[in-house]
Amino acid sequence: MKQKRITVAIDGHSSCGKSTMAKALAKRVGYAYIDTGAMYRAVTLYCLEHDMIKGDEVNKPRLRRHIPKIEITFQVNEEGKSDTWLNGKNVEKEIRGMEVSNKVSLVSAIGFVRRAMVAQQQAMGKNKGIVMDGRDIGTAVFPDAELKVFVTASAKVRAQRRFDELLGKGETGINFDDILRNVEERDYIDSHREVNPLRQATDALVLDNSNITIAEQQQWLLQKYEEVVKS
């Protein structure tokens, strides 16, 4: 009997390991993986490269004119990992730096940006067999997803993970307190934005991974996936 294909929607706070567990599940079960956070980061990078952000203000009229020109795709690299491409250029490294991290919540809170990205995301997942993570996947992008997960962890734990990740990538001049402040600010902006704020879907399973290993959370997600497809 052929196993049914489903949509897996993983939401949660920044730097809580959503992408790691989503990628692992997608690879294990042969599904496509879409990192929606990377899409908003790519739009933010585009804004920075085109001088559309001054302080905490985004030039919305100009961005609105440019948004149809912003094409974001994902391509698997030589290591088997998915890289983010912006208008034909690999920007995976650029979108993970603190410059983008400090501005992404400003850009992702803009209504017309979210609508444009949600439309792209829904097109990517129309045939199911997809694992997608972000802030509003289970509430706005795929409210009918068969499996919804909401992931969280304490702000300090998430900041430490982000700090360690950046150190591992060779970033210099980074400060833990700055990263913690960024995590807390992003939490506030993400949960208070006007369009599709971060919130737990009523039918989502909650995973607080503050004190569990990556292997444990991946096993937990795989078990939940298997329960749904076999039901």
Characterize this entry briefly.
By secondary structure, the protein is an alpha/beta fold. The protein has helices at 18-29, 36-49, 60-66, 98-101, 104-108, 111-124, 137-141, 155-168, 176-192, 214-229, and strands at residues 7-12, 32-35, 53-54, 57-58, 72-76, 82-86, 89-90, 130-134, 147-152, 205-208.
Please describe the topology of this protein:
Layout: E1 7-12, H1 18-29, E2 32-35, H2 36-49, E3 53-54, E4 57-58, H3 60-66, E5 72-76, E6 82-86, E7 89-90, H4 98-101, H5 104-108, H6 111-124, E8 130-134, H7 137-141, E9 147-152, H8 155-168, H9 176-192, E10 205-208, H10 214-229
Parallel strand pairs: 1-8, 1-9, 2-8, 9-10
Antiparallel strand pairs: 3-4, 5-6, 6-7
SSE-based structural type: alpha/beta
Number of helices: 10
Global morphology: globular
- The radius of gyration is 17 Å
Question: Can you describe this structure?
Answer:
- With 231 residues, the chain is of the alpha/beta class.
- It is 47% helix and 18% strand.
- It contains 10 helices and 10 strands.
- The protein has helices at 18-29, 36-49, 60-66, 98-101, 104-108, 111-124, 137-141, 155-168, 176-192, 214-229; strands at residues 7-12, 32-35, 53-54, 57-58, 72-76, 82-86, 89-90, 130-134, 147-152, 205-208.
- The mean pLDDT is 92.
